[in-house]
Amino acid sequence: MKVSFPPAPEPEVEAAEAGRLLFAGPVDFVKGVVAMDGLPPADRPEVCFAGRSNVGKSSLINALTGRKGIARASNTPGRTQELNFFALGDRGYLVDLPGYGYAQAPVAVVQKWQALLKQYLAGRPNLRRAFALIDARHGIKPVDHEIMTLLDRSAVPFQVVVTKADKIGRGALQQVLAQIEGELQKHPAAYPELVVTSSEKGEGIPTLRAIIEGLTAG
């Protein structure tokens, strides 16, 4: 049976305000982790962001938090080479994962941090949801299926966040959303709503904030 993946609706006023307040509060960089034994205690809910190198992950985190430099944005793919943990006050962790796919780094370094990524996704008990970032200009590519299959096998629910939606026209965007919907039929762990965003324009940011607030509540 085909699953529908509509864009997430605008949040209700109360949910939008709760999301705004969460990210208006303290958001602090905790640590960068290069090995599993360096993970902070799994004592609070956690969400993570995964995506191909240069998908706009750092820019999205900066837009969510309203802090321009909290996640270093770079035009060099593969700059994030560790798991970067940010505390949302005492409510939860937001985790910026290493970019996968092409990266300007030595092969051994790439292999090491991608092995860490797989270990993290398979073994983090407090991980509530992964957000899989997909560039609106490219849609889902084969390398995205690799990480999504890993999430399926790890029983980690994931939700696709479409980035850079302002970079293409509305007609082209609808075609990409249809492609994403078709590709997600292959992944049982996919959450049946997309979040369409533009970090530059602020599109979809209140929706994503509200979703994260709900996942880290209580």
TrEMBL record:
Record's family?
Belongs to the TRAFAC class TrmE-Era-EngA-EngB-Septin-like GTPase superfamily. EngB GTPase family.
What name does the UniProt record give this protein? Probable GTP-binding protein EngB
EngB-type G domain sequence ranges: 43-218
Q: Which InterPro entries match?
A: G_ENGB_dom, GTP-bd, GTP-bd_ribosome_bio_YsxC, P-loop_NTPase
The entry's function note states: Necessary for normal cell division and for the maintenance of normal septation.
Residues folding into a coiled coil are none
Q: Does the keyword Membrane apply?
A: no
Keywords attached to this Swiss-Prot or TrEMBL record, sorted alphabetically, are: Cell cycle, Cell division, GTP-binding, Magnesium, Metal-binding, Nucleotide-binding, Septation
Matching SUPFAM superfamilies:
P-loop containing nucleoside triphosphate hydrolases
Source species taxonomy:
Bacteria, Pseudomonadati, Pseudomonadota, Alphaproteobacteria, Rhodobacterales
Cofactors per UniProt? Mg(2+)
